[in-house]
Amino acid sequence: MYKCCVFDLDGTLLNTLTALSYCTNHVLCGYELGEIPTEEFKWMVGDGYRNQIKRALTYLGDQELIHFDEACENYMEFFGKNSMYGVKPYEGIREMLKELKEMGMIITVFSNKPNGQAIINIEESFGKGYFDYVAGQIDGVPKKPDPSGALRIADHFDVKPEECIYIGDTNTDMKTGIAAGMHTIGVLWGFREREELEAFHPAAIVEHPSEIVKIAKGDI
Predict the structure, then answer these.
(1) Which residues does 215 contact at the CB level (< 8 Å), separation at least 6?
(2) Are 192 and 11 in contact (CB under 8 A)?
(3) Secondary structure string (H, E, C) spanning 56-96
(4) Cβ neighbours of residue 70 under 8 Å, at least 6 residues apart?
């Protein structure tokens, strides 16, 4: 029934929260605004680095976003060199991916992280060529929750949206997968709570990566 899995990256495949908080706080400290606790970044990330910086500046009192443009530029420069800081796959992810590949499933990534950093995260965590397709944010393709990027992946592999499983951890992901017409799954090991995911009525909400394999097999 299902031929392709489209995974979100941050908070779904990889725990990147340490890298995101480290790089953002490094930039913000240059403006003497203070630091943000790592856990607070769970609700700041997910829909592009510019929104992330905007929320971080506002959190620390820069309501007029005086430092916004410079902070975005500095962040991208620093993040480009430190995007793997503390990054690691969540428990059970490697085993899940191995089983999906053995089933013949196409495995792909669609992220709002800048494309270069998304590729680095995936290739350094899983190896070059392990995923069939990795797509981060690029000019000319709307970022999530616009479904265009997810649909481009389906079209690339000549599969129908309904033959795809979309997996993510935020409201942005739920909107993306549902708008794309894909079997959308919310995961609870990432950055957001069950209530946020349930509000969008995805096909399933899972607590462990092994459940995704069962869904792909049609067992649940």
Answers:
(1) 2, 165, 183, 185, 204, 206
(2) yes
(3) HHHHCCCCCCCCHHHHHHHHHHHHHHHCCCCCEECCCHHHH
(4) none
Find, among 6, 5, 1, the residue nearest to 219 by Cα.
1
Question: Position of tokens 């929750």?
Answer: 145
Rounded to 5 degrees, what are φ and ψ at 87? -80, 135
CA-angle at 71, arms to 69 and 72, nearest 5°? 65
Q: Please check whether residue 134 is in contact with residue 8, taking contact to mean a CB–CB distance below 8 angstroms.
A: no
Give the Cβ contact number of residue 101 at 10 Å.
15
- Percentages helix, strand, coil for the chain, rounded to the nearest 5? 45, 15, 40
Where residue 51 falls (left for φ over 0; alpha for ψ -120 to 50; beta otherwise) is: alpha
What's the CA gap between 57 and 65, in Å, rounded? 7
Residues 81-128: tens digit of each pLDDT: 999 999 999 999 999 999 999 999 999 999 999 999 999 999 999 999
- Report the length, in residues, of the chain: 220
pTM: 0.92
What is Dmax (Cα atoms) for the chain? 54
pLDDT tens digits for range 29-53: 999 999 999 999 999 998 889 999 9
